[in-house]
Amino acid sequence: MYSTVLQISIAAVAVGATVVERHFTLDKTMVGFDHKLSVTPEELKELVDAIRNIEKALVYTEKHVTEVEMKTLNKYHSSIISAKSIKEGDVITEEMLTLKNPGTGLESKYLPQIIGKKTTKNIEEDTLIEPEMVKGFITD
Predict the structure, then answer these.
(1) All structural domains of the chain with their residue ranges
(2) Topology annotation, domain 74-132
(3) Whole-prediction pTM value?
(4) 24-57, pLDDT tens digit by residue?
(5) Burial of 73 (0-12, 13-18, 19+ CB in 10 A)
(6) How many Cβ atoms from other residues are within 10 Å of residue 30's Cβ?
(7) Could you give phi then psi for residue 41, rounded to 5 degrees?
(8) What digits encode the pLDDT tens for the residues 71-124?
């Protein structure tokens, strides 16, 4: 556990301080008020290490979906699938569609936007619905 003196400096960096001033001593028992409140070489190392960790944690980096995350996304998210054969030009109803894993097709969030639109081609039963299969459908 860090001393109160170190905790204050670490907290200051966490809320935006870019400069920290600490008095330094080789022996806290030396005569003089400052020695008791100063940091020792060991404490200084702890302080610097803690501040560097805080700085790393606060650095903003652009986030990207990793390959592993994409596999998980595809595995556990559902896609819109044809529940039965649908003919070209048919108006899509809710009964014609279902949701299944994996999530490699059109995402389930688009289901309300597809209902009521016409198909652009024949779609066999148990087929992933793709945007080009739905007339006038555009993903965001």
Answers:
(1) 4-58, 74-132
(2) Type Iii Antifreeze Protein Isoform Hplc 12 (3.90.1210)
(3) 0.49
(4) 999 989 998 888 888 999 999 999 999 999 998 8
(5) middle
(6) 11
(7) -55, -40
(8) 777 677 789 999 999 999 999 999 999 998 877 788 888 999 999 999 999 999
